Amino acid sequence: RKEVEQDPGPFNVPEGATVAFNCTYSNSASQSFFWYRQDCRKEPKLLMSVYSSGNEDGRFTAQLNRASQYISLLIRDSKLSDSATYLCVVSHQAGTALIFGKGTTLSVSS
Amino acid sequence: ETGVTQTPRHLVMGMTNKKSLKCEQHLGHNAMYWYKQSAKKPLELMFVYNFKEQTENNSVPSRFSPECPNSSHLFLHLHTLQPEDSALYLCASSQEGAGGAPGFFGPGTRLTVL
Fold first, then answer.
1. Cis bond leading into B107, ω under 30°?
2. A12-63 residue pLDDT tens
């Protein structure tokens, strides 16, 4: 079983749609969780950290369910500029290896 | 200059060549990383340096040799590579104690091994 699993997509949605990405991780000792965004042929950029209590940043909401070892990212009111690959990232403890999922590709069309 | 910079941005080399990738961070971070991104595969951590000391080597073949002369610079020395080593090599930096997240990635070096 892969350490971090994501549905690769692609997710093709119209502008204004709400879209949700899911991610599962296999190591119950994982401590830190993140979503990164990677545009085509560009480097990954940190989108947001994921906290147990859930957190929101504008149109983006991230949630963590430790019991189910599940992370989600919700994007509301999708924009064309949201088109990218979204990477689920987990680390087992602070300052150690980050484990990346393969990413979920989102394409927002007008 | 700000952020994390990498040179060269593109590199084509033969299997017998020796080349080096360079990374520099201007963020005052104390941890630096090398990652490899191959097509249709997740990002793979290669090396971690905290305070210039290598703290992790993720079973990387010896044809890849990292060097970290100070906390702002990181090199990846390459020799006798194989075609399957062709990939995007990404450098990243973070501040230790910040939850382990490499907050910033460089633009990467796209490497092609012939």
1. no
2. 999 999 999 999 999 888 888 999 999 988 999 999 989 888 899 999 999 9
CB spacing of A94 vs B100 below 8 angstroms: yes
Residue A7: band (very low, low, confident or very high) from pLDDT cuts 50, 70, 90: confident
- Judged by a CB distance cut-off of 8 A, whether residue B10 touches chain A is no
Nearest residue to A25 via CA among A68, A81, A62: A68
Pull the structure tokens for residue A8. 């690769």
Question: Residues B32, A57, A93, A23: is their CA dihedral positive or negative?
Answer: negative
CA distance A37 to B103: 12
Q: Which residues are within 8 A (CB) of A109 and not within 5 positions of it... i.e. 6 or more apart?
A: A12, A13, A14, A15, A80
Q: Which of residues 22-51 of B touch A (CB under 8 A)?
A: 31, 33, 40-45, 48, 50
